[in-house]
Amino acid sequence: MVCDLCGSDKNISKFKVEPKDEYVNLCEDCKIQIETGNLDEGHFQCLNDSMWSENSAVKVLTYRLLKSLGRSDLIDMMYFEPEEEAWANTEIEVKKDANGNILQNGDNVMVIKDLNVKGGNNIKRGEVFKNIRLGDTSGHILAKNIYIKTEFVKKV
Ligand SMILES: [Zn+2]
Fold it and tell me: Which has the least CB within 10 A, 64, 105, 131, 138?
């Protein structure tokens, strides 16, 4: 397996192209740079090739990286189906806990106040939820099928 962006075979892992449940294969170098937002323009010369990919997820990720790098000259040459274009331009909401820490799928959180849950058991302050999901609802995370406001939890 090789990196969908640069073709390297170094420590390939899957990377989710939010908000869809679709993935690309990324090498360690590409992934670290994308996750930290520290893009090395030299390394990402590879986008000159990946922009022509027939895989929508690869195109969308390439588009977002080119945008971060300010390469509108290359973006102008890309061809998108309307659905791909909408996907590429979806703003990714960053969800943060009560302390401003960024929440991610799989995090464990503690609830910091008593909460009333419609039609269910109430949640007590101090209750811990493991392996949360970010879910599709703005400003909320999903803990055991219950949506909880991000401002009422902290990462533990
Ligand atoms: Zn790569």
Answer: 138
How is the chain split into domains, by residue range? 13-88, 109-155
Mean model confidence pLDDT for the chain: 93
Cα distances (Å, whole numbers) of residue 14 to 21, 75, 107: 11, 24, 18
Q: Say if residues 27 and 9 touch (Cβ distance below 8 Å).
A: yes
Residue 142 φ then ψ, to 5°: -110, 115
What is the Å distance from ligand 1's center to 67 Cα?
18
pLDDT of 79 > 90? The answer is yes
Q: What is the pLDDT of residue 77?
A: 96
Residues 6 or more apart whose Cβ sits within 8 Å of residue 21: none
Measured in Å, residue 12 CA sits from the centre of ligand 1 at 8
List Cβ neighbours of 110 (8 Å cut-off, separation of 6 or more): 126, 127, 128, 129, 153, 154, 156
Q: Which residues, including other chains, have CB under 8 Å from residue 4's CB and lie 6 or more apart? A: 24, 25, 26, 50, 53, 55, 57, 58, 61
Q: Which amino acid is at 110?
A: M
